[in-house]
Specification:
Blueprint: E1 2-7, H1 12-23, E2 28-35, E3 47-51, H2 57-72, E4 77-83, H3 85-98, E5 102-106, H4 110-117, H5 119-129, E6 134-137, H6 140-148, E7 156-158, E8 178-183, H7 192-205, E9 211-214, H8 220-230, E10 236-240, H9 246-249, E11 252-257, H10 266-274, E12 277-280, H11 286-289, E13 297-298, H12 304-316, H13 318-330, H14 337-348
Parallel strand pairs: 1-2, 1-4, 2-3, 4-5, 5-6, 6-7, 8-9, 8-11, 9-10, 11-12, 12-13
Length: about 375
């Protein structure tokens, strides 16, 4: 049995999804979570929080580094897990190497796209990440990119997304309130403005259609103004941030991702497990999972006409919608926590053994 340290921020939902498989792993006796606050609705007997709730970022970071260094001295602590490499991966790396503990770097989304192409990433972060004992990515596409950039195949793994399926029961598509739903931060990367443009075109053919926007962010006022300018205010519900998205997903038929850059967003997993049909841009590792016309529809980035066409097809062709939805539900068991635990097992089960060769991931 080992103790693991994880230093992270992330939103509550994403942090829960990523930590649950580690917390449930049979070889983990305690998971130390260093964070600004406890994760709401997430109580596990082997999780222990060490909080750094400082208001100012720089002071919070200093506290987190100190906590990481303190925990690294514990004999029972055998490894550090990190998601988002800057700054939390760097904090973990410094603390782990200070006391010769294993360290993991997890790339979970557009963070990989940025660090793999930026000068900062290529000259500072990637050389450090290549020295980690385990690196996880979201899909085969990113895995190929890591190998092209000199990562050791024995230390890189695809970490499948997983959720607690019982928290996302299959919804009844005949009892829906919304035609489409978006869930996420209201920032430029997510291209919610494109979704609004497309939905205005959908309403010309389907005047009773409704769109739900779940999330908050700096673009919220601008997007609401855009909806008014397009004359679709009555058809769009901006519900803001909500701690539990499942009730809104259960009230929709189609889940939309219009991002210009992604890894594989968890909202697609949550939506698909609820029985929603995904409509998405083919960015990041999304095409590794979603096959156009089979278990979703894909459209080119920055193309509101193509997005509107996808939505109209699903609303106009019930047979197509039902075919895709049936294929989506067949994938539900691909997203169980047990599948993710199995990937962690090849690393966590060896942390009791002090030899460095045993800290590698077996592909």
């Amino acid at each position: 049995m080992v103790e693991i340290v994880c230093c992270l921020r992330l939103n509550d939902s994403l942090a829960r999804h990523l930590l649950m498989p580690i917390a449930r792993h049979p070889n983990v006796s305690r998971l130390w979570v260093i964070r600004h606050a406890k994760i709401r609705d997430f109580e596990m007997p082997n999780i222990e929080y060490v909080l750094a709730p400082a208001r100012f970022k720089i002071w919070r970071f200093i506290q987190m580094i100190r906590i990481c260094l303190t925990l690294s001295k514990r004999e029972q602590v055998k490894g550090f897990v990190s998601f988002n490499p800057i700054p939390y991966g760097l904090f973990s790396y410094v603390a782990a190497r200070r006391h010769k503990k294993a360290v993991h770097f997890g790339f979970i989304g557009s963070d990989w796209n940025f660090h793999a192409t930026s000068r900062w990433g290529r000259w500072l972060l990637l050389p450090i990440a290549r020295k980690a004992d385990l690196v996880t990515v979201t899909g085969r596409t990113t895995l190929r990119q890591t190998l092209q950039l000199g990562f050791d195949r024995k230390k890189v793994a695809v970490l499948p997304h997983s959720i607690e399926l019982e928290r996302f029961p299959i919804a009844d598509p005949t009892q829906t309130k919304y035609s489409c739903i978006f869930v996420g931060r209201l920032v430029n990367l997510k291209r919610v403005d494109l979704i609004l443009q497309a939905f205005a075109k959908v309403l010309k053919n389907h005047p009773d259609a409704k769109l739900c926007i779940v999330g908050d962010g700096p673009l919220a006022p601008e997007l609401k103004t855009q909806a008014r300018r397009l004359g679709i205010t009555e058809a769009v519900d901006f519900v803001g941030f909500v701690p539990k998205q499942q009730p809104y997903l259960s009230a929709a038929k189609i889940v939309i991702v219009a991002s210009s850059s992604e890894g594989f967003p968890y909202v697609l997993v949550e939506g698909m497990c609820t029985g929603l049909v995904p409509v998405s841009t083919p960015v990041g590792t999304i095409p590794d999972v979603i096959i156009n016309g089979e278990n979703g529809l894909l459209f080119p980035p920055n193309d509101s006409n193509a997005l509107a066409l996808c939505i109209n097809r699903l609303l106009d062709e019930p047979q197509l919608y039902e075919k895709i939805r049936a294929n989506v539900l067949k994938m539900r068991q691909n997203f169980t926590i047990e599948n993710t635990i199995a990937v962690w097992d090849s690393w966590l089960s060896k942390l009791d053994v002090p030899t460095e060769s045993n800290l590698q991931f077996d592909p």
